[in-house]
Structures
1.
Amino acid sequence: MRRYILNTSVLSAVAGAWGVVQTTRSGPRDWRLVLMWVSWGISVAIAVGTVVEEAKADRLELEQ
């Protein structure tokens, strides 16, 4: 769990939610808002996937 919390890519992706939330509160509700949420979700998924792959690589190195 610590790998996810302390990883800078995950932290920056989660921090990016602040801008999306602010836009959701004050901005117009149109297709661009949906794309912002989708892109934020993709960036979080990529960041978490990267941490998972790094953890797998670390485990493989330890096994060898």
2.
Amino acid sequence: MNKQPEITDKTRQTFINVFCDLYCQKPIEKISVQEIAKRSGYNRSTFYQYFTDIYALLDDVETRVMTSIHEEMASREFSTDTFQNALQCLENAEEISMLKALLGDYGAVHFIERLKREIPFERLIVQLPADDALAPYIVEFYISTLLSMFRLWIRSGKDLSSEQLVQLIDSLFANGITSYHIFGMNTPQRSQ
């Protein structure tokens, strides 16, 4: 007996949603198939109809997020002097709850490395000499900083608007942290 595609998709999505909720709370090693199935309202055998194990589910989640980001990026034309488009691609990804889990406290480092490889952040760094021995370090600093700031922003419930976040990151890259008061000031000091 074949199930209707809508029911199959709904069941798969339920497993994914429950997994993402759990992955935001604890490491993958502490998540069991039984726990996911129980919280989803299904039994373990139903889980195994969709996924071979927890890691296959994680791979499915990562692939869905990357596909969504790639689709969002394909629909945009990037400028060469701003990372706002990249931030918006991440922010507008349909699977934002999945992305939140993958970038959360228990998310895997390999997913962040995958983001670094698959999103062309380095295109956003203007006039970086390709033959410079420092270039890979500069690119890594830039990309790691962007992803860390985005990760914090998502974990903080998007407490700043995306424009405020972009403005903050632009300011930090241009002026460094010394232009900010150490204790709670949220605007840069102007140079005299």
